[in-house]
Structure to design on (747 residues):
């Protein structure tokens, strides 16, 4: 053993139990998942499972329902996380800086309440809001506008809206904190130089909170990619798979059709979609102002 | 005092070892005690419903009294159906976790048999007199493809037409209605649409959102009434192959299409709402907003006292009719059945004791007590013929009468996927996106896919 190793060993030894636990309980299940993604394991209806190589992945890309789910997942994520939660969160955060205290407290309270509600409860509330005899149509009727069955005609839009409703608070909190960090002098200097609200936003605020935008987008996206309960309660992925995002597709394959192997392979592909989004955001983060 | 980094090491190691020992010990407690029979069952997710718990506690007491020295350990699994299956299947995989007796849905029993999770009960059944009392269709429900029996059914359910006498009176239809063909059902719905325009004439479940309810309560109730109405139109038992869509299949789809195209059913968007079942039971029927409902024998459970939406008058306000065969061909009526069975896991430690427990549950008196308590339909002739059982609840003798002409689903391993394919075909014709022929071709493709091409054309 070299001298260096002899010195390092006692330092790292105490970490081994933690490392062992980490490997056992965190890395273990993940490795197991990767392993069964390459088998045809079923929960039931099968005498013995066997190794099938890339068959599950090949099958996924030949499966129209899978491709439909990938597309809907991207639509759902772009609409509700990228556009919805992110923009609305920033807008709320900047507007609230100018608002009076009571308005600020009230708005913040409402938004945060939506956030702390359990997913399933939020799902039921929004189901009641969007359904044919629901609140939204009652309001539209009152205004003499044509009513719609939103969950039936535009399900992916309805669930995206639900996700915006529920998740905006997080972005708002992140951006409130980021905006507080901007030195007042810079904003004031720009104001003296005659920059209007939009120009200040575009040339000062956005570049300065760029890192927060990156972090927020990444967290939002990862959270949105895994949304299950909300959609399940509102539409079950229907009608006809029109709101079946990848998590719902995965659930259907693994637990309704008992195809654990295939479902796990889809989960790995979902992981891939998540990392693609993350890569893009990481590039955004890397750029220094 | 400065602590040397290495001083903590022995303690940490000891802790890790202790933790590991505890963990493995958890898995080690198997059903190896030869005097204790472990019974797993599905506990209601609704805390106020204790029907099963109470019943099993009573049987446990009887069993322990009759078998001195033996003990029963009840292992409830509190979960909705789908999660209960998953949990159970995981338990059945290993001798360390497998209980001695499990409650199995007939929906999945064949799948679990194929997985090798269950033990054939034939040697026990051969020596058990009461087995002769069980009706043949019920016995078949727990039979594997190998011809062996893997479970003892503890009741079943049947399906038929519920109709509002009030709506029928307003439409000028007889309140003792008994349709003889599909056309008569549709005709009645058309009459209601014309004469009582503010109610929904007829509800038949359809599409993926309602899941198995669409397949079983609607599609199979139609399909098993086509052709000669006795042979299985979905699965060829002899050849062990699934049957592709034929005339009966297309006719059944056409029935569903007619209901929604002619607007005899609910709004399509309501029909495809996952919660439509709750609305049928909770709103539409009790409020007189629905003329006819093709639905299951268990509906009154929702209207019992203490359920939150009591409707004791239902037996006066609703009429019951058997679902007719397509053209009224023999035997004239059709029903589908499901239900649950008691089965012994292949990896059970005490299978003999487990079967003794089944016998205790299935004395005539205990079986009868159970059917009445859970509004189940009897699968034993001796109970079905007992007036005390028939009078226990309104509707019970009507639905028991259907048992004679009931069918069980071909619940083989591919069934859940086949069922989904049926729902997709139904949804296609319901929304009008597909013609009957297109939907049937789509089903054939999906069927080949789901069954590894184990199909046969008829």
């Amino acid at each position: 053993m070299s001298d260096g190793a002899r010195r390092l060993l006692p330092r790292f030894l105490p970490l081994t139990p933690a490392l062992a636990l980490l490997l056992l309980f965190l890395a273990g299940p993940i490795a197991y998942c990767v392993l069964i993604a390459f088998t045809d394991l079923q929960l039931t209806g099968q005498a013995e499972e066997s190794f099938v190589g890339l068959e599950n992945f090949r099958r996924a890309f030949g499966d129209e329902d899978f491709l439909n789910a990938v597309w809907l997942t991207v639509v759902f994520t772009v609409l509700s996380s990228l556009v919805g939660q992110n923009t609305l969160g920033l807008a709320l955060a900047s507007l609230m800086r100018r608002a009076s205290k009571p308005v600020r407290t009230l708005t913040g309270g409402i938004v945060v309440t939506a956030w702390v509600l359990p997913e399933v409860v939020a799902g039921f509330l929004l189901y009641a809001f969007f359904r044919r005899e629901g609140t939204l149509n009652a309001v539209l009727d009152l205004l003499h506008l044509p009513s719609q069955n939103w969950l039936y005609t535009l399900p992916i839009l309805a669930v995206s809206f639900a996700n915006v409703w529920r998740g905006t608070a997080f972005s708002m909190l992140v951006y409130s904190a980021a905006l507080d960090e901007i030195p007042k002098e810079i904003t004031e200097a720009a104001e003296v130089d005659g920059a209007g609200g939009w120009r200040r936003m575009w040339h000062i605020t956005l570049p300065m909170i760029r890192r927060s935008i990156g972090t927020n987008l990444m967290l939002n996206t990862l959270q949105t990619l895994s949304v299950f309960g909300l959609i399940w309660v509102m539409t079950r992925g229907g009608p006809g798979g029109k709101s079946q995002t990848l998590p719902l597709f995965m659930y259907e394959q693994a637990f309704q059709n008992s195809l654990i192997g295939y479902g796990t392979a889809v989960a790995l592909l979902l992981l891939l979609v998540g990392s693609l989004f993350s890569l893009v955001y990481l590039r955004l983060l890397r750029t220094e102002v | 005092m400065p602590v040397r980094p290495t001083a903590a090491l022995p303690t940490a190691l000891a802790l890790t070892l202790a933790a590991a020992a505890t963990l493995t010990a958890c898995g080690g407690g198997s059903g190896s005690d030869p005097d204790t029979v472990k019974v797993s069952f599905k506990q209601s997710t609704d805390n106020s419903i204790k029907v099963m718990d109470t019943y099993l506690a009573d049987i446990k007491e009887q069993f322990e009294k009759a078998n001195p020295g033996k003990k029963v350990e009840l292992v409830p699994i509190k979960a909705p159906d789908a999660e209960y299956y998953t949990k159970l299947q995981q338990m059945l995989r290993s001798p360390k976790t497998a209980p001695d007796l499990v409650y199995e849905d007939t929906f999945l029993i064949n799948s679990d048999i194929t997985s090798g999770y269950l033990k054939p009960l034939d040697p026990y059944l051969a020596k058990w007199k009461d087995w002769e009392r069980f009706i043949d269709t019920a016995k078949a429900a727990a039979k594997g493809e190998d011809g062996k029996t893997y479970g003892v059914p503890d009741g079943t359910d049947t399906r038929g037409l519920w109709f509002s006498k009030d709506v029928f009176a307003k439409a000028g239809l007889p309140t003792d209605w008994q349709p003889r063909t599909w056309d008569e059902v549709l005709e009645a719905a058309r009459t209601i649409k014309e004469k009582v325009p503010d109610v929904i004439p007829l509800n038949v479940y359809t599409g993926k959102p309602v899941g198995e309810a669409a397949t079983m309560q609607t599609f199979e109730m139609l399909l098993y009434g086509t052709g000669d109405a006795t042979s299985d139109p979905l699965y060829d038992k002899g050849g062990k192959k699934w049957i592709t869509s034929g005339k009966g299949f297309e006719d059944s789809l056409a029935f569903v299409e007619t209901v929604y195209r002619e607007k005899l059913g609910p709004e399509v968007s309501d029909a495809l709402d996952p919660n439509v079942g709750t609305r049928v039971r909770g709103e539409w029927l009790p409020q007189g907003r629905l003329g006819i409902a093709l639905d299951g024998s268990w509906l009154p459970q929702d209207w019992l006292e203490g359920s939150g939406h009591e409707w004791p008058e239902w037996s006066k306000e609703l009429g019951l009719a058997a679902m007719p065969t397509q053209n009224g061909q023999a035997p004239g009526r059709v029903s589908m059945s499901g239900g649950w069975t008691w089965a012994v896991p292949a990896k059970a430690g005490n299978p003999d004791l487990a079967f003794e427990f089944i016998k205790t549950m299935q004395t005539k008196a205990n079986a009868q007590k159970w059917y009445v308590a859970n509004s189940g339909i009897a699968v034993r002739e001796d109970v079905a013929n007992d007036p005390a059982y028939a009078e226990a609840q309104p509707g019970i003798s009507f639905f028991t009468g259907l048992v004679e002409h009931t069918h069980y689903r071909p619940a083989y391993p591919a069934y859940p996927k086949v069922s989904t394919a049926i729902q997709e075909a139904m949804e296609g014709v319901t929304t009008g996106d597909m013609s009957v022929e297109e939907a049937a071709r789509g089903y054939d493709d999906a069927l080949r896919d789901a069954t590894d091409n184990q199909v046969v054309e008829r």
